[in-house]
Amino acid sequence: MKRACLLKAAALLAGLPLVAGCVASGATPPHARFVQANVNPIIADGSYYSADPAPLVADGKLYIIAGRDEAPPGVNDFIMKQWQMLVTEDVAGGRWLHYPDILRPEQVFAWAARGR
């Protein structure tokens, strides 16, 4: 449990400079897609599963950084090949931008196995 909390904190800290840089420069990470969702989970069609979300509010926008759990059905394992980000200026309106691949574990942690 303690290790999982440490990993979550490390991932959040690693992703914050990316988000802060995008906010400061007005740049957007590549490969965004629009999502309309007034429900929880935000992406409810099963195309992306998120794990351990970390919210950040800056300049009137809500950013949610979350892992993408890719373990297949029936596999009890931790397979997170990337982190994703959801961004909105209007939570009640349900208009989100989804950036499915903003960071990968091997870009942050030297010990992380690629694609695992």
UniProtKB/TrEMBL annotation:
Which UniProt key words apply to this protein? Signal
Q: Which Gene3D superfamilies match?
A: Glycosyl hydrolase domain, family 43
Q: Which InterPro entries match?
A: Glyco_hydro_beta-prop_sf
Keyword Signal part of the UniProt annotation: yes
Span of the signal peptide: 1-20
| Coiled-coil segments on the chain, per record | none
Superkingdom classification of source: Bacteria
Q: Where are the transmembrane segments?
A: none
The protein's name: CAZy families GH43 protein
What is the species of this protein? Answer: uncultured Xanthomonas sp
